[in-house]
Amino acid sequence: NEPLLVVNDLKKYYPVNGGWFKPPSELKALDGISFTLERGETLGLVGESGCGKTTLGRCILRAIEPSGGKIEFLNGRTYMDILKLDTKSLRDLRAQMQMVFQDPYGSLDPRMTVFDIIAEPLTTKSRISGKKLTERVAELMEMVGLEVKFLNRYPHAFSGGQRQRIGIARALATNPELVVCDEAVSALDVSVQAQILNLLKDLQQELGITYLFISHNLSVVRHISDRIAVMYLGRLVELAESDQMFEKPMHPYTEMLLSAIPSPDPDVKRQAAVDGEVPNPANVPPGCAFCDRCKYAIPKCRTERPELRALQNNHLAACHRAEELSLVGAV
Ligand code: SF4
Q1: Residue nearest to atom 7 of ligand 1 (CA)
Q2: Which UniProt keywords apply (predicted)?
Q3: The three-state (H, E, C) secondary structure of 50-75, written as one string
Q4: Contact 182, 214 (CB under 8 A)
């Protein structure tokens, strides 16, 4: 496997005012994230809302400036240390790294035609025009399953699924190596979700794109991901191949998330929902951030932070008790 993106100890801290009686503190939205994205794979990134997954996606594209760490982008002979790029190099990099957003209604400018929306990155980043531009836009529309005759229509004339196809065509316009999909199907009906996920898979096969697929929905992530990373309060707590994660999770938080997925088998009664509340991100417990919600916690969990470590077959987890617990999957 060939790495495309190497993220090392990535941090994003926000200052928090303490008020009258408390000193100022920091909200650690990302607190030392490290992982590698292999070329052509889909890495699913899951966790409850507020865990930092969207911040991570945006920091990788430098839509948000991280507070520290390193992100390396390796494309053939091109090597880029993303956090050190100047504005011009960053613009060039953005042609190779694109984002598909959750809301196909809000992310498309209602005053622009489909042609203008898809053509915009081509005119600004690739500087093509005239007949070539029209041909490329038509090609992109066909690639995502939209009829070219709708070229001059406005976004409001399309359904949610069609609008997401327009968003995907726009993201693919500059032939990116990496596409970050941030809750890309969450706003769509289940049947439309499946169509868009299949489209993303087909495009990956055809074009060799690498996806970072961010979602709070584990079933959706499983459908599309080769590997899955689980985030909790700004940290990665588990990383494994998709099937392994579902069959034999090694972190109690992942077990809890899996237990909340409704089973298609009516005889299988799972826990109805995820237990407990996520702690205040500006006041994370000193040891394991999950200890207040974990039924397996021992005294050590309250004082020592568990590091993400390799356990077996490229399966990583950040739990002091990972080896001794027999956690239940959702297969
Ligand atoms: Fe639970 Fe302790 Fe593991 Fe944290 S380190 S997940 S508290 S058992």
Answers
A1: 291
A2: ATP-binding, Nucleotide-binding, Transport
A3: CCCHHHHHHHHCCCCCCCEEEEEEEE
A4: yes
Q: What is the pLDDT of residues 217-268, one digit of tens each?
A: 999 999 999 999 999 999 999 999 999 999 999 999 999 999 888 766 666 5
Collapse the DSSP code of 139 into the 3-class scheme (helix H, G, I; strand E, B; otherwise coil) and give the result: helix
pLDDT at 72 over 80: yes
Tell me the best of 288, 302, 308 to mutate to test the pocket of ligand 1, counting ligand atoms within 8 Å of each CB and taking the most. Answer: 288
User: How many angstroms separate the alpha carbon of residue 106 from the centre of ligand 1?
Assistant: 39
Ligand 1 pocket, Cβ-based, cut-off 6 angstroms: 251-252, 288, 290-291, 294, 296-297, 301, 306, 319-321
Q: 296 C-alpha to center of ligand 1: Å? A: 6
Q: Considering the entire predicted model, what is its pTM?
A: 0.92
CA of 307 to the centre of ligand 1 (A): 11
ipTM: 0.99
Spatial CB neighbours of 331, under 8 Å, sequence gap ≥ 6: 246, 247
Ligand 1: residue of 238, 293, 298, 301 to mutate (most ligand atoms within 8 A of CB) is: 301
Q: State the residue for tokens 């992109």.
A: 140
Atom of ligand 1 nearest to the CA of 252: 6
Q: What are phi and psi of 140, to 5 degrees?
A: -65, -40
Dihedrals phi, psi of 288, to nearest 5 degrees: -75, 125
- Written as one letter, the residue type at 106 is G
Angle at 7 (CA atoms; ends 223, 98), nearest 5 degrees: 60
With contact defined as beta carbons under 8 Å apart, do 301 and 287 qualify? yes
**Residue 223 CA from chain centroid, whole number:** 14
Q: Which atom of ligand 1 is nearest to the CA of 306?
A: 5
Class of domain 3-109+176-189+206-225: alpha beta
